[in-house]
Amino acid sequence: MIRHFFLSLHRNQKGYAQSTQLPSLRKHILLLVTLVPCMLMAQDNIAESDSATTRRKPLPVRVLLKIKEFVDSSAVSGLDRRYVGQPVRPWSAELRSDINNADLHMTAADRDLNDGTVWRAVTHSGPTVSIGAWAGYRGYGFGLSRAIIGADSKTLSFGATGGSYGVNLRINRYRSGQPEISAKGENYSDRIDWSTDNPLRMRSLFFDAYYMFNRKRFSYAAAYDQSLEQLRSAGSLVAGAMYYHSRVSFADPRNFLLQILMNDVGKFKFTQASIGAGYAYNWVPARGWLISAMAVPMLTFYNRITVCTYDLDISEDMKDYRLIQTGEEHINNRVSWNFDTRLALSYQWRRYYLRAYSHYNHFRYHNANDHGYTSYWTVYSAFGFRF
Description:
alpha+beta
């Protein structure tokens, strides 16, 4: 209508003085003056209607919509699209399989012999083969896996990756195999054959987070969850933080021999927090392919262990026996070092992708008479589908 009005003015610009054109011009002006306020009122009504509809949605839905908006915008904000692309379909589901192993090395100086004898117990959780599934939205998701071969193990994982950061949380529980026990003194070395039907139980919580300084051209998500795609090779300096908490327990009457050798220790917990910096590189040898490597040395600034000691309480008739806790010691260890390394290989095409990657972690502990470490290595493989 507005366009028609101005066309009429143009056609009749020489005829304002002609009385035959004035009635038509007055009609157009009157119609325009009438319609413009009505159009503005309609727009206000539509905006108010949309706002009211949003307000009527339940609070959890509104929170989820805000989170979705943040995830969608943060994933691609500031990216150089020549180097990093984003798949059209935001959701993905994966079938996962992993092979992992956890080692626990415990060393204790014998306080009774006083001849330099050192007892050592080594136990392994695997190799353990697990299968599981993962589902998520643009790199934010949950996974669950369970062992089918090897030690009894379960793992719950959560991952979140954005344009410049990656966050991982893993909670693992397993029962180890038979420990290998050996003794070493000044002039001898021996090994003890020992078996138990109550193996060591271990629970661990592992959390790590990374920030990528070259977020425009380097993508952590492209290597570890395929919510983005690395189109050209690029590297980045990395800042990282890591938190680890673990509890190892063999406090059971059937494990009393092991507790004696470990200076009456039947359970210990250790917590570590580390920060560091390193480098990561994504190499794109061909379209769809990606090889990624990352190494982050870390300084462990918080290192605390709790050691629980036990004694065997035997009934008078020698038929019943139980363990009683006799002490608990909290020890703050000195500042130490740690590291986190990762290697990944992936291939993406259309709605599908394949990924394999591995990582290794190492944690130490130490007190007056005992010391040791735990180490973890894991090799993952995944087949993913986008929708």
